[in-house]
Specification:
Layout: E1 2-6, E2 9-13, E3 18-21, E4 24-27, E5 37-39, E6 45-49, H1 53-59, H2 69-79, E7 86-90, H3 96-103, E8 107-112, H4 115-128, E9 134-138, E10 151-156, H5 161-165, H6 168-171, E11 172-182, H7 185-197, E12 201-209, E13 213-216, E14 219-222, E15 229-237
Parallel strand pairs: 7-8, 7-10, 8-9, 10-11
Antiparallel strand pairs: 1-2, 1-6, 3-4, 5-6, 11-15, 12-15, 13-14
Helix pairs in contact: 3-4
Length: 238
């Protein structure tokens, strides 16, 4: 899949597909590559781009509120997720975090309770180009904890996060990380307490806030639009 861009418009298309729009019919060549320019039958040109992480966030089919890029960045930065890591993810949802981790070279086993959500996540992983690095399982990860082996990283976006964190010593290799994304303060405290009781180290909690800046003729100031708060992130290490 590639991104076809013109004047702020973006379309996600695969080689051989056809797009019909007010700019004409765009027939995507089988040998198309990033950097090419492809024209519609009316001569309207589209630039071809490879997909990057933010493009996945924008174009994935959504089954709920996906983790925001800024939160994903903190997970990647605080845990050092990289190629060769084995990751257990709980609460797949749209699959954005899973896709980022897999594109960084990690192998991810991710659990989603809702079968329809899981199927969407599988399609999104295909779009991201990493189906060989991701296994989307349907079910509750808590039911399988005794049989999963060990991982370098646990990423949790589920109400069961405290129960999973309580087993982190069994699930993580020495020095491995837990990263839990939690929407409410009460749940965040429960994760922290579970990490303490499990004897995990380097327990840190952050509220993720971000504001855009506006620059115009009158001056410069933080934007008043958008939502600054998304959630809380708890990190801990085995």
């Amino acid at each position: 899949m590639y991104l076809f861009v013109r004047d702020g418009r973006e379309y996600l298309l695969a080689p051989g597909e056809t797009l019909e729009s007010d700019l004409g019919i765009l027939e995507v060549p089988e040998d198309v590559a990033p950097g090419d320019t492809v024209e519609t039958h009316l001569g309207e040109a589209f630039e071809v781009r490879d997909l990057r992480g933010p493009d996945l966030f924008a174009h994935f089919e959504r089954t709920g509120a996906p983790m925001m890029p800024r939160d994903i960045g903190l997970v990647m930065g605080h845990t050092g997720a990289c190629g060769g890591d084995r990751v257990l993810d709980a609460g797949t949802g749209t699959g954005v975090l899973t896709a980022y981790l897999a594109r960084a070279g990690a192998d991810v086993v991710t659990y989603e309770r809702n079968p329809e959500f899981a199927e969407v996540a599988r399609s999104n992983v295909e779009i991201a180009g990493v189906p060989d690095r991701v296994e989307v399982r349907v079910g509750d990860v808590v039911d399988d904890l005794d049989d999963l082996g060990t991982f370098d990283l646990l990423t949790l976006d589920t109400e069961d996060a405290p129960r999973i964190v309580s087993r982190a010593r069994d699930l993580l290799v020495s020095g491995g990380y837990v990263a839990a994304y939690v929407p409410f303060v009460e749940g965040t405290r429960a994760v922290v307490e579970a990490a303490r009781e499990a004897g995990l180290d380097e327990i840190e909690t952050y509220e993720t806030l971000q504001r855009e800046m506006d620059f115009d003729a009158r001056g410069s100031r933080p934007s008043t639009a958008g939502v600054g708060h998304t959630g809380y992130l708890v990190f801990a290490r085995a």
